[in-house]
Design goal:
Elements lengths: L22 H12 L26 E7 L5 H11 L3 E7 L13 H12 L6 E4 L5 H14 L8 E5 L5 H10 L6 E4 L6 H10 L4 H18 L9 H9 L7
Helix pairs in contact: 1-7, 1-8, 2-3, 7-8
């Protein structure tokens, strides 16, 4: 089960309606498709940033799970979700990654440290620091929580990752979701333009990554590694323009 989706932060016209030379707009449309979001919160403030004054919402999720990468915005966003009463506790998952070597520690540990700096008590943060890919992020986290007698069956679960990976994370988790659980998308607030700048600063080509990400949705869905969803024709066209290839 998936929570109802909130309105997207920024909409770009359908790729099918764009003329030649509009690759940037097309990439923005693909990014918007991948960066699905179900929950919008305000920024941290002096009031919301104090754990002792936190008020747990009636619809609070059992936990917010932050999947690691170099993007520390995920940790800060999970901290804001916790401090504003949207999650009972936090889980960070991720070991040493090739794209996050400059963190000099497992991604989950870096995320925990960032969240503590934001005001989250250490006792409300769990760390899974062995996984090295998205399926492991999920399966190792579920195993850890089961061993701690904190299973997620029937619970609301917030998922947060760097925006362009959000759809694949949700489909990966939905493929082996605990019975009766509801998955809620919550990537850190951003725009396509902001993410391009963030990735460029790391020497990464975000538009190229977007094409590959849509191709993964198709390939992994066909293989049964993730929940399979139909990919809209305009998204396929946009991804193809960014270098993706699809089976006939």
């Amino acid at each position: 089960q998936r929570a109802p989706q909130s309105p997207a932060r920024s909409r770009v016209p359908s790729i099918m309606t764009l003329g030649a030379g509009a690759q940037a707009a097309g990439a923005g449309t693909v990014w918007n498709y991948l960066a699905e979001n179900d929950i919008t919160i305000g920024p941290l403030s002096a009031e919301s940033g104090a754990a002792k004054s936190r008020v747990l919402r009636d619809d609070a999720a059992e936990c917010a799970i932050g999947l690691g990468s170099f993007d520390l915005r995920v940790a800060r966003h999970c901290a804001a979700l916790y401090l504003q009463g949207h999650a009972r506790f936090l889980v960070f998952t991720g070991g040493f990654g090739s794209g996050s070597a400059d963190l000099k520690q497992p991604e989950a540990v870096a995320y925990k440290n960032e969240a503590v700096t934001c005001g989250v008590p250490e006792e409300d943060i769990l760390v899974e620091a062995e996984s090295t890919n998205t399926p492991q992020n999920w399966s190792f986290t579920l195993r850890m929580l089961k061993e701690m007698q904190r299973p997620l069956e029937g619970k609301r679960i917030i998922l947060s990752t760097t925006p362009y990976r959000q759809r694949r994370v949700r489909l990966t988790c939905a493929h082996s979701c605990p019975a009766g659980a509801t998955l809620i998308n919550a990537p850190p607030p951003s725009t396509y333009e902001e993410d391009v700048a963030l990735f460029e600063a790391k020497g990464l080509d975000l538009p190229g990554l977007l094409g590959g990400e849509v191709q993964r949705l198709d390939v992994y869905g066909r293989k049964g590694d993730i929940l399979r969803e139909d990919i809209p024709s305009d998204i396929r066209a946009g991804a193809a323009a960014l270098g993706a290839t699809f089976a006939a």
